[in-house]
């Protein structure tokens, strides 16, 4: 778990985990298994609900806040996943982030920058 958190926090490549970590292949294997089983999403949902209850709120939010941001794509980003945002005059991706009214993360979606905000917002719906 510490190895996964290290990669997420620092943004380093799996191969560059500190020497005192397990082999990077092992850490990545666990990460992949947990992602496929949606363990991370379940943990975040549980932690969000607990934080809301501690704040005296219902466990499930009744309102969401959404925002988008266009980000220039690096040369390593495939052309098929990039787009041109005419409003921002940037070629890259657009991220849509949904939070509850406490600012706790609910959904993150990354699309081509050419996707209109109204269309991108539709992809962030949760059930």
Describe this structure in words.
- One of its GO terms (molecular function) is transposase activity.
- This is Transposase.
- Keywords: Membrane, Transmembrane, Transmembrane helix.
- InterPro entries: IS402-like_dom, Transposase_11.
- It comes from Dactylosporangium sucinum.
- This protein has 127 residues and is α+β, with helices and mostly antiparallel strands.
- It has a domain of 67 residues.
- Strands 1, 2, 3 and 4 form a four-stranded antiparallel sheet that branches.
- The two termini are 28 Å apart.
- The model has no long low-confidence stretch (mean pLDDT 88).
Taken from the alpha-carbon principal axes, the silhouette is flat
- Name the structural class: alpha+beta
The portion of residues forming beta strands comes to: 15-25%
Number of separate helices: 4
What pattern of helices and strands is seen along the backbone? HHHEEEEH
Write down how many β-strands occur, each being a DSSP E stretch of 2 or more residues.
4
The average pLDDT value, as a whole number, equals 88
């Amino acid at each position: 778990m510490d190895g996964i958190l290290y990669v997420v926090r620092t943004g380093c490549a799996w191969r560059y985990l500190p020497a005192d970590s397990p082999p990077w292949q092992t850490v990545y294997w666990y990460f992949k298994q947990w992602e496929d089983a949606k363990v991370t999403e379940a943990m975040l949902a549980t932690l969000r609900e607990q934080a809301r209850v501690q704040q005296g709120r219902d466990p499930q939010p009744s309102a969401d806040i959404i925002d988008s941001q266009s980000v220039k794509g690096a040369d390593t980003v495939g052309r098929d996943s990039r787009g041109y945002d005419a409003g921002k005059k940037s070629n890259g991706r657009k991220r849509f982030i949904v939070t509850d009214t406490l600012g706790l993360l609910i959904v993150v979606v990354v699309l081509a920058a050419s996707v209109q905000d109204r269309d991108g917002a539709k992809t962030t719906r949760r059930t």
